C-alpha cells in the first residue's frame, strides 16, 4: 500500500462518494490541473426528488469545465461529468455518456457500481477509480471491475473519511487498492500529466 503521489497512465477517472462526499470531491476537484486532458466522471449519492446544484458549486472549485451529464453525449477531454439526480450514469463505446432509470443499486440511483463497471468496459487499463467517504457498500464491486479490467484502484483511507464505511467496504473487497488520505489523493491529482 504505497502512499507516494504517483500514478500510471490514465485515460479517464471515475469517482464515487456518498455521505461527506461534497466536501471530499470539492477538495479533489480543486487539485485537478487546468490542462488535464482526461475526462472525470463522478457519482455522488443525491436526493432523487430535487435538482442538483452541484455543477455550479463544484465549478467554483475546479479549473476544468464541470457539468451534469446528459444522455448520449460524446465525452470531451478535460471535462468533469456529474451524474444527475435519479439517473445512473454509464459510459458507452464512443465514448459517450449514457443515463439510465434502471432500478437502484445499493438503494442508490445514481450508483457508483454502475458507473465504474461501465467505464471499466470502455477504458480498461486506462481507468483510475476512486472510492471516497460514504455509508454503504456502493463502489466495492465497481472498483473490483476497474481492477479486473487492468485499471488502478484508490480508496480513501477509511479513518480519514467523514463516513468510513464505504471506503472500508471497497478496501475489504479490493485489498490491492492504494489507500490514501484525501490530501494524498489531491497530490496525486495535482501530479497528473496534462
List keywords for this structure.
three-stranded antiparallel beta sheet; about 190 residues; alpha/beta
Shape descriptor: globular
Distance between the termini: 26 Å
Q: Element order, helices and strands?
A: EHEHEEEEEHEHEHEH
Mean of residue pLDDT values: 94
Radius of gyration: 15 Å
Question: How can the largest sheet be summarized?
Answer: 7 strands, parallel
Unreliable spans: none
SS-derived structural category: alpha/beta
Overview of the structural elements:
The radius of gyration is 15 Å and the shape is globular. α5 links the parallel β9 and β10 (178-180). The mean pLDDT is 94. α1 (21-29) packs parallel to α6 (182-190), α3 (112-123) runs parallel beside α4 (140-148) and α4 (140-148) packs parallel to α5 (165-173). The longest helix has 12 residues, at 112-123. The chain has six helices and ten strands; from the N terminus they run βαβαβββββαβαβαβα. 48% of the residues are buried. It has a seven-stranded parallel beta sheet, with helices on both faces. Strands 4-7-6 form a three-stranded antiparallel beta sheet. The chain has 194 residues and is α/β, with parallel strands linked by helices.
Amino acid at each position: 500500500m504505497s502512499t507516494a503521489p504517483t500514478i500510471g497512465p490514465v485515460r479517464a477517472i471515475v469517482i464515487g462518494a456518498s455521505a461527506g462526499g461534497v466536501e471530499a470531491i470539492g477538495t479533489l476537484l480543486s487539485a485537478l490541473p487546468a490542462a488535464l486532458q482526461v475526462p472525470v466522471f463522478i457519482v455522488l449519492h443525491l436526493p432523487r426528488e430535487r435538482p442538483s446544484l452541484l455543477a455550479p458549486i463544484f465549478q467554483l472549485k475546479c479549473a476544468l469545465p464541470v457539468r451534469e451529464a446528459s444522455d448520449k453525449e460524446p465525452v470531451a477531454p478535460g471535462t468533469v461529468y456529474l451524474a444527475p439526480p435519479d439517473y445512473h450514469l454509464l459510459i458507452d463505446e464512443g465514448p459517450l455518456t449514457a443515463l439510465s432509470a434502471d432500478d437502484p443499486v445499493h438503494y442508490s440511483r445514481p450508483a457508483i457500481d454502475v458507473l465504474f463497471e461501465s467505464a471499466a468496459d470502455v477504458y480498461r487499463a486506462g481507468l483510475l477509480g476512486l472510492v471516497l467517504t460514504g455509508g454503504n457498500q456502493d463502489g466495492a464491486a465497481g472498483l473490483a471491475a476497474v481492477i479486473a479490467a487492468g485499471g488502478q484502484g484508490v480508496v480513501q483511507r477509511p479513518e480519514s473519511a467523514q463516513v468510513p464505511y464505504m471506503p472500508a467496504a471497497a478496501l475489504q473487497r479490493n485489498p490491492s487498492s492504494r489507500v490514501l488520505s484525501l490530501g494524498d489523493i489531491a497530490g496525486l491529482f495535482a501530479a497528473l500529466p496534462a
